[in-house]
Amino acid sequence: MGIDLQFVDICGAADALDLSRTKDVIEESLRRLQSQGVDVARPIMVGDRMHDVEGAAVFGIPTVFAQWGYGSQEELVGAAAVADHSEDVMSMVRYQAGRKGGAV
Predict the structure, then answer these.
(1) Backbone angle region of 74, left / alpha / beta, with phi > 0 → left and psi within -120 to 50 → alpha
(2) Which end of the chain, N or C, is more open, meaning fewer C-beta atoms within 10 Å of its C-beta?
C-alpha cells in the first residue's frame, strides 16, 4: 500500500538477527538511523504492547500507546501519551516538536 515509503527505516523482531526483544529492535533501529545520518536525539516510540513501552524506556524514549492495537489498558502503564486513533499520533508529534522548537 506504499506506507513503507513514509519511513527512513523499518526494523522488527528477527530471530536470525538476534532481535527477539523489543529493546534489541529499538537499539538496532537507532543504529541504522544514525548510520543514515538521521538525528535520533528525540525519538518517539509508537507501540501497542507493554514490551514497546518497556523497551523504549531502556533508552529514555517516550512511548505513545496505540489504543487501536493489540494491547490491553493494563499495558499502557508508563506510556507518555495515549492515542485513540492513528491520526492522533501525528498531532502529538507535531505538538511535541513545536514545544521543543524542532521539526517533524
Answers:
(1) alpha
(2) N
C-alpha 71/C-alpha 29 separation (Å) is: 22
**Centroid of chain to Cα 98:** 19
pLDDT at residue 96 in the model: 66
Neighbours of 78 (CB within 10 A): 13
The angle formed by the CA atoms of residues 82, 85 and 91, to the nearest 5 degrees, is: 75
pLDDT at 91: 82
Task: Please give the single-letter amino acid code of residue 48.
Answer: D
**Strand 81-83 relative to strand 45-47: parallel, antiparallel, unpaired?**
unpaired
Q: What angle do CA 14, 17, 22 make, to 5 degrees?
A: 55
Query: Does residue 28 contact residue 40 with C-beta atoms inside 8 Å?
Result: no
Amino acid at 89: V
C-alpha cell at position 29: 533501529
Those residues of the chain that have pLDDT short of 50 are 102-104
